[in-house]
């Protein structure tokens, strides 16, 4: 791949362009808002000047509702040897292209499983896709050269290719991406009119659950409008669990011992099923999640403190597998939770104490 055209310079399009440009590909940028394409070009993602002839690959990075029309226009003008889109739904756009009579041999639907709560070119980074799954949905009609160019794009972005059927992909993202967005937003919506005293009690749990609720509503309306059926199917199951959980909680208020026991059993069932589901979420390096020991350290909110604790852990010869920071409300301090192998935890705690750190259990 020597040349590429990125159509749509939001977060995903600009991030892909930055990755390609950084690896020697000549990237042309276009957007319905020329100022946005100019911004992406200024960031080093390529040039907003039109290519002189057909490019090797056209990357369509527009909202799902506009994918088919944008692809059909690009194909009609013959601007590339191969065409891909990076929308978060795959079945609908492909069927729209078929209905428009487009030649699908030169097209493959793709979806990089990466993103941020922020959108637009200023949020883009060249390493956005590194180590992340990038779904490819070829059909029997897909030309081998087109598939190879798509795989080259994935490799240049340092992502991990995953081949799936388009409709299977849409059902999968309904479960692991689209429904979590809605559920996160529903929980966060409870905070909008909550008493200020209650909001001040927010801890790490509510921050974890509502993190993605900060996403752009307009963008998510477009995504969900393109995949409503599979998302509704998943939410139907969630709604059934919610109803059963509500009934179990009501039973815990009963004066009848049997009803209370039944309520407790119902709550325990949903929590245990949650444990089982959580255990299936891939952990570090895509493997099954490991059982790490948490070493919690009190840390002040001062420049250099994080670097110092990581350096001290390194001096102790301990690899930090993961890290979380729990901020203390109203204080210039917080807890750094260092996740380490269980066998390494005692030595790390001793070493950090010797260096003056305050360990919390």
Description:
This protein has helices at about 10-20, 35-40, 65-75, 90-100, 145-155, 165-190, 195-200, 205-210, 215-225, 230-250, 255-280, 305-315, 345-355, and strands at about 5, 25-30, 55-60, 80-85, 105-110, 135, 160-165, 295-300, 320-325, 335-340, 360. The protein is α/β, with parallel strands linked by helices and about 350 residues long. The chain folds into three domains: about 5-165, Rossmann fold; about 170-280, 6-phosphogluconate dehydrogenase C-terminal like domain (6-phosphogluconate dehydrogenase C-terminal fold, Orthogonal Bundle); about 295-360, Alpha-Beta Plaits (2-Layer Sandwich), CATH 3.30.70. The chain has a seven-stranded mixed beta sheet with strand order 2-1-3-4-5-6-7, with helices on both faces. The longest helix is centred in the middle third of the chain and has 27 residues, at about 165-190. The mean pLDDT is about 90.
